[in-house]
Amino acid sequence: MRIAVLSDIHANLAALEAVASDLPQVDQVWVLGDIVGYGPQPNEVIATLQAMGARSVLGNHDGAAIGTVDAAYFNPDARAAIEWTAARVDDNARAYIAALPEVRRDGELTAVHGSPRDPIWEYITGPSIAAANLDAFDTRLCLFGHTHLPMVYRALDGDVDATMGLPGERVELNGARALVNPGSVGQPRDGLPDAAYAILEADEADGTDGHAVEFRRVRYDIDTTQRLMHDLGLPPRLADRLRYGR
Ligand code: ZN
What we know:
Largest sheet: 6 strands, mixed
Order of helices and strands: EHEHEHHHEEHEEEEEEEHH
Bound molecules: zinc ion
Radius of gyration: 17 Å
CATH architecture: 4-Layer Sandwich
Oligomer: single chain
Shape: globular
CATH superfamily: Metallo-dependent phosphatases
Number of domains: 1
Mean pLDDT: 95
Number of strands: 12
């Protein structure tokens, strides 16, 4: 059993399409929120995820786009982009977002956007926050996003081991409980502009009891996304940062 794990697509259709064509044969696709916001094609991204049969959770930008999450904490560029998005989400996209759960569970897998104890807002940025959150879900694994950084936090002998998800790297989970972040499809922030996602390998017999995660990167046509953002009047800094992966 193989599961594609995507997060923080942020309405970047060119990046999502590149990931979709790079995907090996998988049994499921999980999406960890922030489907929209920042980028130029929210409706197209949601239609693509529907066609892929993605299992998605709600991110802070998704909720803000339909008015169910308060955008007061957004920085000015993020707020400008979310106001732009809110004015453009079509009925299908609005209904899709409105139906998203904050937490999704299946077998030994939990999925959230931010963290299991605060699915919308908390950033898991280091081992101590990860340690507190390892107590906040009861499945073997928890998939999360929000930081836009590929990472694995494994519970090992009462400690937390933090491993960056380097491109092409395969991280063994060895039955440990773990928090796994695939990085961001549509706005990477680890200094590499290529779209990030992960493949979770699980044993057939155990269903979703993952035993290894492979971190993948895909080049996509950044020019196309930047040009669209420029033409549609989205904040220039949001387009510029795609080039640098910051
Ligand atoms: Zn995000």
